[in-house]
DNA sequence: TTGTACTGTAATATTTTTTATTACAGATAA
DNA sequence: TTATCTGTAATAAAAAATATTACAGTACAA
């Protein structure tokens, strides 16, 4: 149950709908019933990737750093750094087993391919597109 | 940290490498340093999807139910039923907010599209292909 | 210049999910 | 009838995500 991508997308949607305005983490958190600190954490990731800007102090808040046509959902996905779609084994396979010895590398390659497929799909959708679906 | 897909793929790899033999959950678990009960749980899912067969009692164990050319990694992915690649929000967005009211449905559609992209990618790879990568 | 309303961040607690462990009933072959 | 396996439940332990609390720093405004 990991809602980081959903939080980030929700915020970007709000920012896109209210261009020019600075939205606070409290306001945004209220719109999605989530803790404001969690919003600020996701915002840090988005800002580190150059997708949003933030302003401190009174009248501070968040705004888009780029036109929404330039922000794809792949950018969001990469920014929030979700755990891999195929999961990740915590165990270390037995190195004495010919299969156990090699399977880690093959599974890693596969995971990379799947992540690439996800990014490819998400890169075709911008925040602008996503928001345009709304009534 | 979810290793269910890795466990399932590991077992299928072993079964593919040793055709005709029945492999026990203890043997398999030893090859990947994981708890035997966890192996049996994943095997239940694979059997429910018709990918493997199991035999109880002494000399019991697991075997492939289909030729490895007929089992794709998409079949495995669907069988193990991982949580969605984009995560899943546990919170319920504020229904009084025009964005909060609608975003759930749009995020669900997006999640479906991404899952479809993953399945499409994985459906191009059979267990036979995967195992053929090994030395 | 002082109060107010934000962000940024750390520390901690709670909740949820995953994995491990234990236990035992039932099946099957030797 | 004994040993070895699957099937499954119940419980414990470990890991991850989220919530909460707290507070320093920043910027605006009265």
Short description:
The structure is a homodimer of 135-residue chains. Chain A has 135 residues and is mainly alpha-helical.
Task: Kindly describe this structure.
Two copies of one chain form a homodimer. Chain A is mainly alpha-helical and 135 residues long. The first copy, chain A, has one domain: Arc Repressor Mutant, subunit A. Chain A has six helices and two strands; from the N terminus they run H-H-H-E-E-H-H-H. Chain A has a two-stranded antiparallel sheet. In chain A, a hairpin with a 5-residue loop joins strand 1 (52-55) and strand 2 (61-64). The longest helix of chain A has 25 residues, at 98-122. At the A-B interface, helix 1, helix 2 and helix 5 of A face helix 1, helix 2 and helix 5 of B. The structure holds a DNA duplex (30 and 30 nucleotides).
Topology (SSEs and partners):
The structure is a homodimer of 135-residue chains.
Chain A: H1 4-17, H2 25-32, H3 36-48, E1 52-55, E2 61-64, H4 73-80, H5 98-122, H6 127-132
Antiparallel strand pairs in A: 1-2
Chain A binds a DNA duplex (30 and 30 nucleotides) through residues 1-4, 22, 24-26, 34-35, 37-38, 40-41, 43-44, 54-62, 83, 90-91.
